[in-house]
Amino acid sequence: MKTRSITLLAMAMLLFCSFMPGKKRDNPFFSDYKTPFQVPPFDKIDSTDYLPAFLEGIKQHNAEIDAIISNSAAPDFANTILAFDKSGKLLTKVSKVFYNLNEAETSKQLQAIARQLSPIVSKHGDDIALNEKLFAKIKVVYEKRKAMNLDSQQLRVVEKYFRDFERQGANLSLETKDQLRKLNAELSMLSLTFGENLLAETNENFKLVITDKKDLSGLPQGVIDGAAETANEKGMNGKWVFTLSKPSMIPFIQYAKNRGLREQIYRAYFMRGNNGNKNDNKETVAKIVKLRVEKARLLGYASYAAYIVDDNMAKTPGNVNEFLGKLWSASLPVAKKEVAEMQKIIDREGGNFKLQSWDWWYYAEIIHKEKYSLDESELKPYFSLSNVRDGMFLVANNLYGITFTKRTDLPVYQKDVETYEVKEADGSHLGVLYLDYYPRDGKRGGAWCTDFQSAGWENGKKVDPVVSVTCNFTKPTADTPSLLSWDETTTLFHEFGHALHGLFTVGKYTRTAGNVPQDYVEMPSQINENWAGEPAVLKSYAKHYKTGEPIPDNLIEKIQNSALFNQGFETVEYLAASILDMSYHGITEPKDIDVLKFESEEMKKIGLISEIIPRYRSTYFAHIFGGGYAAGYYVYIWAAVLDADAFDAFKSSGDIYNKTLAAKFRKYCLAESGNDEGMVQYRKFRGKDPSIDPLLKRRGLK
After folding, report:
1. Closest to 296 measured CA to CA, from 180, 192, 181
2. How far is Cα 649 from Cα 5, in angstroms, rounded to an integer?
3. Confidence (pLDDT) at 437
4. Distance separating alpha carbons of residues 507 and 335, to the nearest angstrom
5. Helix, strand or coil for residue 418?
6. What's the rounded Cα separation, in Å, for the pair 448 and 468?
7. CB-based burial of residue 231 (10 Å sphere; 0-12 exposed, 13-18 middle, 19+ buried)?
């Protein structure tokens, strides 16, 4: 590229000028937000504000780093570690808004800015991580830390930063550092490309248009109404449109009697990024995998998996693979029994075909009805989005005493987003929660929790968090509110668990406040799912959206009885993706790979049955190629061991709202989670190491 020969400053000026508006305006990032609780002024932010704010943020950050380096005083905690920990405020401020909106409410403009920012931000990160003078100062403090009269948290911050710099290549030669810079820049751009391609494949390049009402046979009326509204939004009045967003696709493959159409939409889903068009991700995946091997080797690791897992609770890929292998051996036979059960139904009905992956949801739903007398459409009326939201708020109130007050005076980035002030039991302000529920063209798929401002400490005062939960749930229709499936219900409880972690986090230092190993981070979210299905909790929030009547005991009993339903499938499809992730990142030699062939061979090795495909195939595996879960998708089930064991403590106590346990869990596992290593913090709560038995029992694998 021609721009590679241009200096960073020259490039920055070009970008700055190209995005300058015709009329001068105040940039909201350049001053304190004049909003309640210092939330971002979304109504005042224009896309032209981002690049100038990023460039100024980088400039200020560089000046702060230079000040640390040029300080003539002997390096100590305050003038080196603390100064570094508190640097880059403006850059963090604009990053939290821009990158979150590029996920939740993107546009062609934001995507263009992201592509232009990628090499600049990558270079800036490397300029700091590979700064020899800065690392030398940090190293002095690290080597003298035990003689500096530091408290335990100061010592931890020093040690964490020193290890960070080592892991990022601070000890490499100048030549090797240059190689690392190039790799980081390429990987940053490739990850961005992967995400853009997937967004287009999901939201733009496919829709199933139904014109004949007969093809809607089997679908619940609410699903049909939703498809009609989607069609109207797309200018196709009188038709029905289904998309690849899960709230649209899953009900179709779950209920539609037309097998050919079920195959059509599901095939479009699992072929995303693998269609030989401009959005094809195969080459992108191959490049990412190869470059990550090169990066790991530069940093002294045998594989990228070894590099990543070294910083996690698991410590080695071998430990991860052994753990996944044990679960695979326990779950695959269960999945095979489920296949046999479904095939019997097909044969009984004279289907004369072998069960395929696009049939699974349909026949699983039949079994759900026959075996457990439970119909998902029978449950949905009791799980209106507002009731589920209020239910999760009630659980948090019963456990921790916190309250949620809806605010209508806070700026939002999209009209459907809700905002809540979160208060402690004594009425004091704790933080702000944003809830963004529904799918739209500018939002990536899935559900996630992030923040616009992290909890922290500034000038001797606590900084209150601004946390955001983003989902893709079933949209309301003209006649019906948003009615959630059971999976969507537990998803909301899950993401809210992340939000509680963010809201409760305390700590004086950016590096350690709430900063936990990747295979710990899902535990606070997953434990929260457990309360969603407790009978007493269900009675409190699961109320019929028309009558207000609480969910009847017979439906609660059905939910409880069907807890083990489809667990073979769910565990196997998840483990297959986790194993695929570890296989890609366990490669030890940089080489060109055929992505489809590699995926196929790895799945054959573990004996994945043809009726199930990995939860994420390579070309749409955003967790590992477009997000931060490379060599880490296993963390959900690793953390599940912790969450099952932790909830077992509440159940065994005889009180799911045990205030003493809740206080300990909040303190050690949420608020002070970054104060020590993950397992150390967990033991402080539990008093012992976690047992895998509660997880195996919960999934029916034991």
Report:
1. 180
2. 60
3. 97
4. 44
5. strand
6. 8
7. buried
Give the amino acid at 178. Answer: D
Query: What contacts 160, CB < 8 A, 6 or more positions away?
Result: 511, 512, 515
Tokens of 382: 């009791």
Dihedrals phi, psi of 542, to nearest 5 degrees: -85, 90
DSSP annotation of 12 reads H
Contacts with 526 (C-beta within 8 Å, 6 or more apart), sequence order: 494, 497, 636, 639, 640, 643
What's the CATH number for 381-564+636-698?
Answer: 1.10.1370.40
- pLDDT digit string (tens) for 554-583? 999 999 888 889 999 999 999 999 999 999
Catalytic residue among 201, 421, 495, 522: 495
Judging by DSSP bridges, how do beta strands 208-210 and 240-242 pair with one another?
Answer: antiparallel
Mean pLDDT, to the nearest integer, of 494-511?
Answer: 97
672 is catalytic: no
Distance CA 510, CA 27 (A): 26
Amino acid at the residue 102: N
Pairwise CA distance, residues 474 & 220, whole Å: 13
- Looking only at the bridges linking them, the beta strands covering 456-458 and 448-453 are unpaired
Sign of CA dihedral 16, 17, 22, 26: positive
pLDDT band at 3 (very low <50, low <70, confident <90, very high): very low
Q: Provide the pLDDT for residue 699.
A: 87
Query: Distance between CA 570 and CA 579 in Å, rounded?
Result: 14
Q: Which residues of the chain form CATH 1.10.1370.40? A: 2-129+131-171, 381-564+636-698
How far lies 568's CA from each of 375, 564, 701, in Å? Answer: 20, 9, 8
pLDDT, position 460: 84
For residue 8, pLDDT over 60 is answered with no
pLDDT, tens only, 581-596: 999 999 999 999 999 9
Q: How far apart are CA 588 and CA 183, in angstroms?
A: 16
Instruction: Judge whether 483 and 222 are in contact, CB under 8 Å.
Output: yes
Closest to 634 in 3D by CA, of 615, 610, 620:
615
By the 10 Å C-beta count (0-12 exposed, 13-18 middle, 19+ buried), 446 is classed as: middle
Gyration radius from the chain CA atoms = 26
Q: Top-level CATH class of 2-129+131-171?
A: mainly alpha
pLDDT digits (tens, 9 = 90+) for 94-140: 999 999 999 999 999 999 999 999 999 999 999 999 999 999 999 99
